[in-house]
Write a structure and sequence with these properties.
Layout: H1 3-11, H2 24-31, H3 37-45, E1 49-51, E2 56-58, E3 72-73, H4 76-79, E4 101-107, E5 112-116, E6 127-131, E7 136-140, H5 144-152, E8 173-175, H6 176-184
Antiparallel strand pairs: 1-2, 1-8, 2-4, 3-4, 4-5, 5-6, 6-7
Helix pairs in contact: 1-5
Length: 203
């Protein structure tokens, strides 16, 4: 495990035994590309899940790719939508293409967390964020794990996402399967309290 992932694991509050074991070779074949090493180490250490309730969520790749929430390309209608063409730094609009974006996460406030995949080496992919607050894309020249660390330790000049609840805090990380298990047990996954609405399904 890299020092960056080890640092992240210390920063966040998480349960022992989290993480997902994925068949990366099969996934890379299905997706047509490799994935960044720091992301693979993150998945092994923590896995699919969320930082804080309705906070910052991280997805994992899946095959078939239409199975629940997953790492994915932007849909065609999003790539061509006029309101998605805005960049915080206008000169980046001619350098990056939305079709090269690969989504790995999001926030409860509607932000989109991605990689820009034009570089052949995934370890050189910078993070791109669509912030609902600014209605624009911003690029951060760091990997996914370093991005998370800098959000949780408030090392950026300003919060890069609309949800400031995780900014400069020690967030709680909950694996998606653990959250689902607790909800099915009638508990609020984030407080442990009985939740009368947990497990209910609506038509």
């Amino acid at each position: 495990m890299s020092s960056a992932v080890e640092r992240l694991a210390v920063i966040v509050d998480h349960s022992d035994g989290a993480g997902d074991i994925l068949e990366w070779v099969a996934l890379e074949h299905a997706y047509g590309h490799e994935f960044p090493v720091d992301y693979q180490e993150f998945v092994a250490a923590l896995g699919e899940g969320s930082f804080n309730e309705d906070g910052l969520m991280v997805a994992i790749p899946r095959v078939p790719q239409d199975e629940r929430w997953r790492v994915h390309r932007l849909p065609d209608d999003t790539v061509t939508a006029p309101d998605m063409q805005s960049w915080a730094q206008s000169e980046r609009a001619g350098r990056y293409l939305l079709r090269d974006i690969l989504v790995w996460g999001g926030t409860g406030t509607g932000d989109v967390l991605c990689w820009l995949t034009e570089e052949s080496s995934p370890d050189q992919w910078p993070v791109a964020v669509w912030s609902r607050a600014s209605a624009a894309w911003e690029v951060y020249e760091c990997g996914m794990v370093e991005f998370l660390i800098r959000v949780f330790t408030a090392e950026f000049e300003e919060c890069p996402i609309s949800d400031v609840a995780v900014w400069g805090t020690r967030p709680q990380f909950l694996h998606a399967l653990e959250e689902e298990r607790l909800r099915e047990a009638g508990l609020n996954p984030w407080t442990g309290a009985l939740d009368p609405f947990a497990g209910l399904q609506y038509e």
